[in-house]
Amino acid sequence: MDNIRNAFKHAIAAGKLQIGLWCSLCSNIAADIVSDSGFDWLLLDTEHSPNEIPDLLSQLQAVRGGTATPIVRPAWNDPVLIKRVLDIGAQSVLLPYVQNPEEAKRAVASVRYPPAGIRGVAAASRASRYGRVAGYLKSADAEICTLVQVETRTALDQLESIATVDGVDGVFIGPSDLSASFGHVGNPQHPEMQKALEDAVTRLKAVGKPAGILTGNEEEARRYIDWGYTFVAVGADVGLLARGADTLAKKFKT
Q1: HEC assignment per residue over the chain
Q2: At what angle do helices 53-63 and 28-35 cross, to 10 degrees?
Q3: Residue 191: is its pLDDT beyond 90?
Q4: In the chain, at which end, N or C, are there fewer CB atoms within 10 A of the end residue's CB?
Q5: Mean pLDDT of 133-159
């Protein structure tokens, strides 16, 4: 059995736009439903969602065979959390709050087996299809996609040095936390923030590194795409459910 090809990793490396959806419902059924919606990627969140390893496992099983590549966001840039996520079969991770090149290097080391990194070796995990993927331990690194989040002014000041760390496949600009860092908490639409977001993708394009972002606003999403963001989450499962339910109830209650 061959290792699974990471379609998302190869697409962003080729500069192909990837449209995604944020998934925070911690539900394998919800993940199953949206996996065939036509999105290129789904973000399974554990940083701001009550998602744990058994939940993630069921979600990864649910989306297998859908249109979208699953990306897991561990709660922190921590080798133990990352190891557990990779062992259950995630090939792409989004690591929060990376502040400098040293932390980016730690992120890369966490997804790679020795001698290139520090990922613990499991002989028969789901990642290797329970030992069925021939030569998995030697081929795994090539299909792991490492995305790091830049979400503070401190990190933004070091954007190029973070982005160009060997093994970083893409940089996600976190608009909410970055806005808070700039003193505009809850307001990524502030003109200063929009300028910073445009400047960030320009700088990342200059060093040849794919940039990602999230927004639930269609106009913003299209603007970010026009600016050159490569992987763009254009909504969230929580928002789709809440807004759809609100709209339906309003039709009959007013």
Answers
A1: CCCCCCHHHHHHHCCCCEEEEEECCCCHHHHHHHHCCCCCEEEEECCCCCCCHHHHHHHHHHHCCCCCEEEEECCCCCHHHHHHHHHCCCCEEEECCCCCHHHHHHHHHHHCCCCCCCCCCCCCCHHHCCCCCCCHHHHHHHHCEEEEEECCHHHHHCHHHHHCCCCCCEEEECHHHHHHHCCCCCCCCCHHHHHHHHHHHHHHHHCCCCEEEECCCHHHHHHHHHHCCCEEEEEEHHHHHHHHHHHHHHHHHC
A2: 30
A3: yes
A4: C
A5: 97
Q: What is the token pair recorded at 210?
A: 């794919």
Placement of tokens 């990190």 in the chain: 155
Domain region containing 27? 7-253
In a domain, 2, yes or no: no
CB 155 within 8 A of CB 99: yes
Active site residues: 48
**1 assigned to some structural domain:** no
What is the C-alpha to C-alpha distance for residues 91 and 85, in angstroms, rounded to an integer?
A: 9
pLDDT digits (tens, 9 = 90+) for 28-47: 999 999 999 999 999 999 99
Residue 123: the pLDDT is 87
* 103 in any annotated domain: yes
Provide the domain count of the chain: 1
Asked if 100 and 151 count as a contact pair (C-beta separation under 8 A), the reply is: no
C-beta separation of 88 from 125 below 8 A: yes
Strand partners, 148: 95, 171
- Domain of 209: which CATH number? 3.20.20.60
From the CB of residue 36, how many other CB atoms can be counted at a distance below 10 Å?
Answer: 12
Q: Is residue 44 in a domain?
A: yes
